[in-house]
Amino acid sequence: MAHFFLRAAGVGRRTAFVAASAGSAVLLSGAGMAYATSCKEERDKHKILIVGGGSGGLAVAAQLQIKGEKDVAVIEPSENHYYQPLWTLVGGGGLPRQQEPTTREGRHALGCPLAQGQEAPVLVHNMGKVMRGEKPTAVYDGYTSCPLITVRTEGGREGGRGYSSLLLAEFKYGGEVAETFGRVIDQAEPRWAFLQLKKHVFPFAYWELFLRGRWFGTRGVIPPSFE
């Protein structure tokens, strides 16, 4: 995508572009700080310690507090929280090494807020179960989303400089398709309406709802029930 826009602007026509990564996936997300301290005495006062104050960490902390858990601490070295508009282009990251549906163990996929919104309630519910000495019952199906922005074409050639539509790809563990709007429209086709969701709805849901623990992925503002 960056290569296309640089070429459209007359930059880099004789330049080779190389994308390199040290791992199997790249996550273009920033981090935030809900509460941070390096004092061991302070940390010992909290029953729950969340390492990492990115979007997932903040959402889990917020949902725990909504459920009445007050002793929650988030450790995050950065004082800033960034929202990268194109961070979901990296997709959902890699499949977890161990697909543990209760989210209690295993390495889970790095995903966009839509995916984290699905996973956070499962983690919060099962954490409460385990802390009470009970068996975790909520299950995370591995849902992840990959909104792919597309550009205009003219006669099969690249043309224009603006985004025109978006392909909303959604999957579960094992690559199973999990389309939110699949019963109404064909999500295999890039659509202008999905681009508007990305531009206008998702940022609002992220800042005003998700980070406050009130956005639950494809369920929107309706919290899931695991009982």
TrEMBL record:
A GO-annotated cellular component: mitochondrion
A GO biological process held by the record: sulfide oxidation, using sulfide:quinone oxidoreductase
GO molecular function per UniProt: FAD binding; sulfide:quinone oxidoreductase activity
InterPro entries assigned to the protein according to its UniProt record, in alphabetical order: FAD/NAD-bd_sf, Sulphide_quinone_reductase
Entry protein name: FAD/NAD(P)-binding domain-containing protein
Top-level taxon of origin: Eukaryota
